[in-house]
Amino acid sequence: MMRLQLNKSTFLTGLLFVGTAALLVGWLIETPAGLLGKADAIAYAICHRIATRSFTIGDRPLPLCARCTGMYLGALIGLVYQMRLGKRGGLPSRKILAVLAFFVVAFGIDGVNSYLQLFPHAPSLYTPQNWLRLLTGTGMGLGMAAMLLPVFNQTVWQNWGGEKLLSSWRQLIELLLLAALVDLAVLSGNPLLLYPLALLSVATVIVLLSMIYAMVWVMLSKRENHFQSLKGLTIALVAGFATALSQIAVMDFARYLLTGTWKGFFS
Questions:
Q1: Whole-model pTM?
Q2: Which of 89, 192, 67 is nearest to 140 (CA)?
Q3: How many CB atoms lie within 10 A of CB 86?
C-alpha cells in the first residue's frame, strides 16, 4: 500500500512538471517573439496597455502602462526588502498600515480620475499625468507586498515568526527611498534602465500570481503551516506557477480573440 501511494505521488509530481513544461513551451511559441514580446504577452493579460498612458523605450511602449509599471515594481521592491530582513514575520505594524492605506486611497483616487478622462466632458479633479500614475502605482505595489508576503508566510511555513516584518519608521523610509530611486530611473527615460525595469515589472506579475496560487494549492491540500524550506515547497510553487501561466494564457487567448492584436486598447 505504501509503495502504491509513493508511485501515485511520483506519477502525479511528474505529470505536474511535464504539464507545466508543455504549457510554458506552448505559450512561448504562440506569443510574440523576443523578450519584450513575451513581456507584452504577460502584460496583455492584466493591463489595458494604452500607449499614451505608458512610458516608452524610443517609440515602443513598455509592456505595462505607467500605473501597472509602478505597481509591480513597487511590489518587487517590497518583496525583496522584506525577504532581505531574513524573517518569516507577520503583517506590518498599525502605523505602517496607516501609511499604506493612504497609498491605496491615493491609488484609487488617481485611478478613478484617470479613468474618467476616457469619457468626453466627464468631470475630473485634475489632468492625469504618467508620473503621477507611476507614483501612485508604486505606493499600491508597496502595500500589496507588505500584505502578501506575511500572509504567504503565515499560510505555508511551519515556523513563521509572530514578529512584524515592517514595524519601524526607519524601515518605511528605507523602503520609500528605494521606491523613489526606481521611479526616478523609470522617469529618466534611459533605455539602459527602462529595459531591465520593464522585464522586472512583468516578471513580478508571474511571481505574485504564483505565490497566490501556491497558497491556494497548499490550502486545498490541507497542508497549511506544513513546510520548513523552499525545497519542500517546490511542488506547491510549481503548481502555483502553472496556474498563473494558465490564467495568463486564457486571458491572452480571450483578448486576442476579441481584438485581433497584441497591442493595447485605443492603440
A1: 0.92
A2: 67
A3: 7
Residues 6+ apart with CB under 8 A from 132: 110
Cell of 158: 511551519
Closest CA relative to residue 43, chosen from 60, 68, 23, 22? 68
Domain coordinates of the chain in residue numbers? 60-259
Mean pLDDT by groups of 10 residues along the chain of 267 residues: 57 87 94 94 94 92 96 98 87 94 96 87 86 97 96 92 88 96 96 96 98 97 91 94 97 92 75
- Mapping DSSP onto H, E and C, the string for the chain reads CHHHHHHHHHHHHHHHHHHHHHHHHHHHHHCCCCHHHHHHHHHHCCCCCCHHHCCEECCEECCCCHHHHHHHHHHHHHHHHHHHCCCCCECCCHHHHHHHHHHHHHHHHHHHHHHHCCCCCCCCCCCCCHHHHHHHHHHHHHHHHHHHHHHHHHHHECCCCCCECCCCHHHHHHHHHHHHHHHHHHHCCCHHHHHHHHHHHHHHHHHHHHHHHHHHHHHHCCCCCCECCCCCCHHHHHHHHHHHHHHHHHHHHHHHHHHCCCCCCCC
Question: Over the stretch 67-107, which tens digit does the pLDDT of each residue have?
Answer: 999 999 999 999 999 998 878 888 999 999 999 999 999 99
**Are the C-beta atoms of 55 and 189 separated by less than 8 Å?**
yes
- Residue bearing cell 516584518: 165
Positive/negative CA dihedral, 171, 175, 176, 180: positive
Distances (CA, A) of 94 to 54, 87, 88, 98, 101: 34, 19, 18, 6, 10
